Amino acid sequence: MKEQLLKNPVFQMAAEQFDRTADFLKLSNDVRERCKWPKRLLTVSIPIKRDSGETEVFFGYRVQHELSRGPVKGGLRFHPNVKLGEVAALAMWMNWKCALMGLPFGGGKGGVTCDPRSMSEAELENMTRRYTAEMLPFIGPQTDVMAPDMGTNEQVMAWMLDVYSSHAGHLVPGVVTGKPVNLQGSEGRTAATGHGVAFLATRALTKCKIRHENATAIIQGFGNVGYHAALTMERFGVRIIGISDVTGAVHNPEGINVKELGKHVAKSGGVVGFTAADSIDPADLLVQPCDVLVPAALERVITSKNAGKLKCRVLAEAANGPTTTEADAILERRDDIFMIPDILCNAGGVTVSYFEWVQNLQRFQWSEQEVLTKLDTMMAKAFDRVITFAQRNKLPHRVAALALGIKEVANVKKQRGLFP
Q1: Could you tell me what percent of the chain has a pLDDT over 70?
Q2: Measuring CA to CA, how many Å separate 228 from each of 65, 221, 225?
Q3: So where does substrate get bound (predicted)?
């Protein structure tokens, strides 16, 4: 019954990863069951009036995987393909991510099945406000703290903050993170995920004895995460030779100026047509030679069909779940690619969200330098823990990262016990 409720290829992939890791940890069945399944699965209808005057109903979701270690933390995405099973998988991964990073949060995720690119700002605001109103009984600074994800941004968070604060009768900045700085958001939050990806990618290059200034990188996905990952790697001296987004892909072995491409995308809506690079099929871009490959878009893009063809030295998973279990098996057999698994690689976003939440509780703002310095310290510590644990136990990096996160959650479940 549980499997049927969450029947979805993304959730199946997350569950397979969990089961493999739980087997390694030798979790007892009672603890395994409590760790695996979400605490809450929320589905709401969201009727809004479109600009045409017609009423349309959208479906929204929020999955709270567990609250044993603290409030739920996780993003909210607006995308046409959002489904309950996908959201549940993302909440599960967020759970292990927070535990791996030592953050006092459980994992959560939300989504609305819509196409934000086809909606006006007024329609997006109406949908956001109605979604927030439906979620009011289940969110709050000590219960569930949302953040931006695919298709959402700091403006969406500002609308959510306004709905919750209006209901409370006073400003409650800690109900969301990733909000504008003038609404007590955090310096450095916008760049945090991409910055963390680039920081760990360069550490992996060092492990592989590749000098940053001699390295090349390809970025699949040029949203907020992909842009800042590319920009930060460029600052580290890495040459960005390929970038793709929903409109297509561009490639230039001599290097792509990330800021110039960003300006082009802002004007045209996509990377296609950028004259300083050649057009290339997005699928072909993934298998071009490079030192660092960064999948920074949707799930399940590294598959059994292309895993054997990858020509990268480091695979830095900026997206959630970009590599299927079948592809994992191929990469493990190859043993020539340094994998930075998603729950570690993209943890910069939730880590700085934690910093923002702490600043909101303290009513005290940190500088961007303080934020990014603290982020680098925590990312480096987690990276070293994962690599050391993997080497000591002869494990793939993904299983090592999951094991550290799942073990922490399992221990808390055991300590708190089961309420009768």
Answers
A1: 99
A2: 29, 11, 5
A3: 73, 97, 353
Q: In CATH, what number is assigned to the domain containing residue 260? A: 3.40.50.720
- Residue 254, C-beta contacts closer than 8 angstroms, at least 6 positions apart: 239, 241
pTM of the model: 0.95
Q: CB-side exposure of 356: number of CA atoms within 13 Å?
A: 32
Query: Are 203 and 84 found together in one domain?
Result: no
Closest CA to 132 of 92, 90, 83, 168: 168
Longest dimension (CA), the chain: 65
Reference 134, options 44, 47, 50, 73; nearest CA is 44
Crossing angle of helices 192-207 and 348-362, rounded to 10°: 130
Spatial strand order of the sheet with 72-79 comes to: 40-49, 55-64, 106-113, 72-79, 144-148
The phi and psi torsions of 209 (rounded to 5 degrees) equal: 60, 40
Token pair for residue 101? 């990073």
Tell me the per-residue pLDDT of 227-286, one tens digit each, with 9 for 90 and over. 999 999 999 999 999 999 999 999 999 999 999 999 999 999 999 999 999 999 999 999
Convert 237-258 into a string of H (helix), E (strand) and C (coil): CCEEEEEEECCEEEECCCCCCH
Q: Which residues are catalytic?
A: 109
Residues 80 and 208 in one domain: no
Query: Are residues 119 and 167 part of one domain?
Result: yes
271 within some domain: yes
Q: Is 311 labelled a binding residue?
A: no
Does 408 map to a domain? no
**Residues 206 and 334 occupy one common structural domain:** yes
User: Is 79 a member of any domain?
Assistant: yes
User: Of the residues 340, 361, 393, which one is the last residue of a structural domain?
Assistant: 340
Is 353 annotated among the ligand-binding residues? Answer: yes
Residue 257 in marked binding region: no
Residues 279 and 200 in one domain: yes
Helix, strand or coil, per DSSP, at residue 216? strand
Contact (CB, 8 A) for 319 and 297: yes
Query: For the chain, how many structural domains are there in total?
Result: 2
**CA 143 remoteness from chain centre:** 20
H or E stretch at 371: helix 368-393
The residue segments making up the domain with residue 222 are: 192-340
Query: Both 161 and 68 in a single domain?
Result: yes
- Whether 411 has a binding-site annotation, put simply, is no
Q: Are residues 146 and 210 in the same domain?
A: no
Q: Is residue 20 part of a domain?
A: no
The Cβ of residue 248 has, within 10 Å, a number of other Cβ atoms equal to 16
Asked if residue 224 belongs to a known ligand binding site, the reply is: yes
